[in-house]
Amino acid sequence: MIKVIAKSIIKDGELEKVINLYDELVQKTRQEDGCISYELFQDINNENILTIVEQWESEEHLETHKKTVHFTRIVPQISDKRLNSEINILHKIK
Amino acid sequence: MIKVIAKSIIKDGELEKVINLYDELVQKTRQEDGCISYELFQDINNENILTIVEQWESEEHLETHKKTVHFTRIVPQISDKRLNSEINILHKIK
Question: Which contiguous run of DSSP H or E holds residue A56?
Fold first, then answer.
């Protein structure tokens, strides 16, 4: 099992549009094979910081996810509306 | 419910010591009132990036956690062995 943490800082004025895009991405991704969980969080101290926390059965499932029609259509639209992002792929050690 | 993501970049040569410190922190924190989960992850692309992912019933429980004897004893020892850290407190929106 792997965990993905994808943190984005959204441009001012784009938050509502980005949350709507993530909403569709969340709904479609949860139906994918190998997706254990896929959730959207907002920073309590800065509403423009959004974080997706994902759990996948394997790296192969994650790679397949990145090639889906919904990912390749929605993620570039989100990317246009964020100042930056950082993605970490993790495995549990404790 | 709130989630905390605490990401640290550990100094070269200090990783084993830090994981041992986190091991004690994880065991003791999981016994605290209001702690839903408290897990340690390692980045699959950089072993020196460690991330604690925490879930707490409330911000009040998180604040109490920061005053515990184990937190105030162990966290400064970890801080000495990391290059930097970033902590985000999140609430789920989707």
Answer: strand A49-56
